[in-house]
Write a structure and sequence with these properties.
Helix content is 38%, strand content 18%. It has 365 residues and is of the alpha/beta class. The chain has 2 domains: 2-175 and 346-363, Glycogen Phosphorylase B (Rossmann fold), CATH 3.40.50; 186-344, Glycogen Phosphorylase B (Rossmann fold), CATH 3.40.50. The strands form 2 sheets. It has an 8-stranded mixed sheet with strand order 3-4-2-1-5-6-7-8, with helices on both faces. The protein is globular. The relative contact order is 0.13.
């Protein structure tokens, strides 16, 4: 089975939840016998084709632009796939790229769409942008051969709203990595150069965009006098007023660590006293699953995709409520049931299920 993936920036170690999803999924599909080609966005990867764990990655032109990048790249990549890759199935990621599902079908290709979350809820989109993304979701549901949805509640909602298409809407979550923090030591934490010791800080990880809620986390943290520092790991694809204002909050207590990869990132998870995800929008948060895999207590906003992980009530706070978050930051938050989470969100099983569904799509008339 020959699959061509479109909609992600690229792999490996490219910032973003979709990118993390694909970095775990596609090598596993290759190991099961699939041939996978990713058409990556040229600014984020090497300028020539390469392979990552058996996955072919081809850079295709993309213009770095906060609003147009995804749509222009997807349009070009679909034609590139038809002319040069000749896949059995196109795998589109997210509802922005899904806007071009009819185009891929018109060009004679079968399409699987992975719905990573209701992106029209992101604060960066104006009314027009939200309308375009909702149209993308509608195009996926109407024209895709199969829709894989990473959130359980979102899957249920889409099936209820579109009963005639419910048979092709499937729940396929993101996964947790069982050996995420293996071979990670305190030396890896020292290698970050941040001067941190185990249990001496609270950590958050993500892109600097409004829907991640880092501004709420900083405000709530500064309402407390807890001794732990606040360490925010990540950056932004496109500098804007929000990211610049956020970075102005840096101080001796509030540390912006930039992007981190490999053992440094894993160490920042593993040795934190607490991981916090204050987001307003998610699909199914991979960063939360990574923190749980690192056996670190997690505190999540009470949005539905986070509630779908089904942790104890103590692991949640009211989204956007600075007082509630500040109160929780001063408490001892319990660890999540790591063993149960690893079973529930096993990447190997998720990959097997994904390949089964994609193969069914290819074989269907």
């Amino acid at each position: 089975m020959k699959l061509c993936a479109i909609g992600l920036r690229g792999i490996p170690d490219v910032m973003g939840g979709i990118e993390s999803h694909c970095q775990q999924l596609y090598p596993r599909l290759v190991a099961q016998g699939a041939e996978v080609t990713i058409l990556a966005r040229s600014p984020y990867v090497e300028n020539k084709p390469y392979q990552y764990q058996g996955v072919k990655v081809i850079p295709v032109w993309a213009m770095r632009h906060k609003f147009l990048e995804t749509f222009l790249h997807t349009f070009v990549a679909i034609f590139y796939a038809r002319l040069f890759v000749h896949p059995d199935v196109i795998h589109l990621h997210a509802i922005g790229p899904a806007l071009f599902t009819p185009l891929a079908r018109l060009l004679g290709m079968k399409v699987v769409v992975t719905h990573h979350g209701a992106d029209y809820d992101r604060q960066k989109w104006n009314g027009l942008g939200k309308g375009v993304l909702k149209t993308g979701e509608a195009m996926a549901i109407m024209f895709a051969n199969k829709i894989l949805v990473v959130g359980k509640s979102l899957t249920d909602r889409l099936q209820q709203q579109h009963p005639k298409q419910a048979h092709k809407i499937e729940f396929v979550p993101n996964g947790a990595i069982a050996d995420f923090d293996s071979n990670v030591t305190i030396d890896d934490l020292s290698a970050t150069g941040l001067g941190l010791e185990a249990q001496s800080y609270i950590v958050a990880v993500g892109r600097f965009v409004p829907e991640k809620g880092f501004h709420d986390l900083v405000k709530a943290y500064l309402l407390t006098d807890i001794p732990q520092k606040l360490v925010i790991v990540g950056s932004t694809d496109h500098q804007d007023d929000y990211s610049r204002e956020l970075l102005k909050q840096a101080s001796e207590r509030v540390i912006f660590a930039g992007r981190r990869e490999g053992n440094q990132l894993k160490a920042l998870y593993k040795f934190a006293k607490l991981f916090v995800l204050p987001s307003y929008h998610e699909g199914l948060p991979i960063v939360a699953l990574e923190a749980i895999s690192a056996d670190t207590p997690v505190l999540l906003s009470d949005i539905m995709p986070n509630l779908d992980i089904e942790l104890d009530a103590q692991n949640y706070f009211k989204v956007g409520d600075h007082a509630d978050l500040a109160k929780k930051l001063t408490q001892d938050i319990p660890k999540a049931p790591k063993a149960d989470i690893l079973v529930k969100y096993d990447w190997d099983k998720i990959a097997q299920h994904s390949l089964l569904l994609i193969n069914q799509t290819v074989k269907a008339s």
